[in-house]
Amino acid sequence: MEEGPLRLVREFVNTRDVEGGTDAFGSPEDxxxxxxxxxxxxAGEPVTSADVDRAVELREAVRELLAGAGERxxxxxxxxxxxxxxxxxxxxxxxxxxxxxxxxxxAAVGSLLAVIADAMYDGRWRRLKVCRSDACQWAFxxxxxxxxxxxxxxxVCGNRNKAAAWRARQR
Length: 171
Hints:
51% of the residues lie in helices and 12% in strands. It is mostly helical. The mean pLDDT is 92.
């Protein structure tokens, strides 16, 4: 199973580096650059501080949903979908996709929600996860055969966790 468009959702979640303490959405200009770089926002569309706050809230809600803490996250995603005015668009070939009736940042985040909905429908969503290390929480696409990955990297977070568990057992 390939990551496909979920790459964009993973990158969106990873705009906050928990371990490094950095946030790529520190200002309206930062959010504008990220959205434009990912072809989600047309040139000339304004981005406000309130847009940044809502994008950060959505990002953290997606992270929570990936970690399995879904009730508040689902509320945030639903509210974001309403602001984006997502609606189904049917094609003559028998396909359907969600499209945003909004403009600006609301339409941009609506595109992210449409990717999430598609992935939930086709089963790829269960492969997008956040690292179980509380210090990390990096989003990753689980390519393991069984889909049972827990760590963004076995060489880093997995190794740290296993070493800590071994030391605890030795005590």
